[in-house]
């Protein structure tokens, strides 16, 4: 006798939650606690639960494959993002087809067009979304799409975004609250929407505080550019009180430049990043950063895409109305040692809401 198909009730029983909770967790609804969502996904993966997968494949031309097109596949941010996407894909019986384009718009356009006929839907992160016609010309027509951190001047596709501006403002305000007045900012690639929003948040926060001084250094969201910026900061002749890097990888590169020069963090200069990659808590000193739930971003993006795919033609007519309502994830300030140990401890004792300490 063949193995009996696993049902949603089996998943609910094993995870010790209700069938409704399993459904909400698998479909990426926000009213499920994160630990519960992860538990459900793990149980569904372990039991190899696939909702009506066989029936769908017989009644449609489904490939059971999801296309994922990202700027890069290297680095902890993309590793975490793919980990979240993969967790949902495995739980839902889907396979992933990955592609990257390394900052070349022509390569991204080619990667998007190459997905036609090979996948049931697309997850796309593109810094070129604000270029007139770029997405419309390159995204396969009638294929379900969810954009991740991609700016759309006129929203046409469902999207998940990080509030990069608010996160950068919160970090600058944290550094100012600790007494740092001269703050250097290491930015990201000029074409990158996340980088532009974090820079805008930095500038707005500095402008809102008389007496605060901001300095800007170029970066490329990698360790090498953070290292170069760190050396440039030390060579500038006017050492800032703190450095805020637009992502953690640049912050770690900057930290290495300071260590090489014998500059103590946070004793001589404070340091902060953005993203909260797993490595951020394990370096010395541990890195103050803005926590983005990167894996959760991937999980929710794929869950939202699968909702579109499973709705099929019936859902196509309402997709446009839903497209304009981007789901926004707000980063959380995580205070660690690098921004100033004693001041950070004092802030934590005050118990400010919305901020974490590790």
SSE blueprint:
Blueprint: H1 8-15, H2 19-26, H3 34-47, H4 53-59, E1 65-70, H5 76-91, E2 95-100, H6 105-114, E3 121-124, H7 134-138, E4 145-148, E5 159-162, H8 164-177, E6 182-186, H9 193-207, E7 213-217, H10 223-235, E8 242-245, H11 248-260, E9 270-272, E10 289-291, H12 294-323, E11 327-329, E12 332-335, H13 341-350, E13 355-357
Parallel strand pairs: 1-2, 1-3, 3-4, 4-5, 5-11, 6-7, 6-8, 8-9, 12-13
Antiparallel strand pairs: 10-12
Structure description:
Helix 7 (134-138) links the parallel strand 3 and strand 4 (145-148). The protein has helices spanning 8-15, 19-26, 34-47, 53-59, 76-91, 105-114, 134-138, 164-177, 193-207, 223-235, 248-260, 294-323, 341-350; strands at 65-70, 95-100, 121-124, 145-148, 159-162, 182-186, 213-217, 242-245, 270-272, 289-291, 327-329, 332-335, 355-357. The strands form three sheets. A six-stranded parallel β-sheet has the order 2-1-3-4-5-11, with helices on both faces. Strands 7-6-8-9 form a four-stranded parallel β-sheet. It is 46% helix and 15% strand. The chain has 358 residues and is an alpha/beta fold. It contains 13 helices and 13 strands. It has three domains: 1-49, 434 Repressor (Amino-terminal Domain), CATH 1.10.260; 58-162 and 294-329, Response regulator (Rossmann fold); 164-292 and 332-357, 3-Layer(aba) Sandwich (Rossmann fold). Helix 1 packs across helix 3 (34-47). GO terms for molecular function: DNA-binding transcription factor activity; transcription cis-regulatory region binding. Residues 347-358 have a biased composition (Basic residues). Residues 6-60 form the HTH lacI-type domain. This is LacI family transcriptional regulator. Residues 337-358 are annotated as: Disordered.
């Amino acid at each position: 006798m063949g193995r009996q198909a696993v049902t949603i009730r089996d998943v609910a029983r094993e995870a010790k939650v209700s069938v409704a909770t399993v459904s909400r967790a698998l479909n990426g609804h926000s009213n499920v606690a994160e630990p519960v969502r992860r538990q459900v996904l793990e149980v569904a993966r372990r039991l190899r639960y696939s909702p009506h997968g066989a029936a769908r494949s017989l009644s449609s031309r489904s490939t059971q494959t999801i296309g994922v097109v990202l700027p890069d596949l290297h680095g902890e941010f993309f590793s975490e993002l793919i980990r979240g996407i993969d967790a949902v894909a495995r739980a839902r019986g889907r396979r992933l087809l990955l592609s990257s384009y390394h900052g070349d718009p022509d390569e991204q356009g080619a990667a998007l067009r190459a997905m036609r006929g090979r996948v049931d839907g697309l997850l796309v992160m593109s810094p070129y979304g604000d270029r007139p016609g770029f997405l419309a010309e390159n995204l396969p027509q009638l294929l379900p799409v969810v954009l991740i951190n991609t700016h759309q001047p006129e929203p046409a596709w469902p999207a998940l975004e990080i509030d990069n501006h608010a996160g950068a403002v919160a970090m600058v305000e944290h550094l100012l609250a600790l007494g740092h007045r001269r703050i250097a900012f290491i930015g990201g690639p000029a074409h990158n929407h996340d980088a532009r929003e974090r820079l805008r948040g930095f500038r707005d926060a500095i402008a809102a505080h008389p007496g605060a001084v901001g300095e800007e250094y170029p970066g490329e969201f990698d360790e090498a550019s953070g290292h170069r910026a760190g050396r440039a900061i030390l060579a500038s002749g006017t050492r800032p009180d703190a450095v805020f890097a637009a992502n953690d990888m640049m912050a770690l590169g900057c930290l290495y430049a300071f260590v090489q020069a014998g500059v103590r963090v946070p004793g001589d200069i404070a340091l902060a990043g953005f993203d909260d990659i797993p490595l951020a808590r394990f370096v010395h000193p541990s890195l103050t950063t803005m926590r983005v739930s990167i894996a959760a971003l991937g999980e929710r993006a794929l869950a939202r895409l699968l909702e579109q795919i499973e709705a099929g033609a019936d859902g196509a007519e309402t997709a446009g109305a839903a497209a304009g309502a981007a789901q926004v994830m707000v980063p959380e300030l995580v205070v660690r040692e690098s921004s100033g140990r004693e001041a950070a401890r004092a802030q934590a004792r005050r118990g400010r809401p919305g901020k974490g300490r590790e």
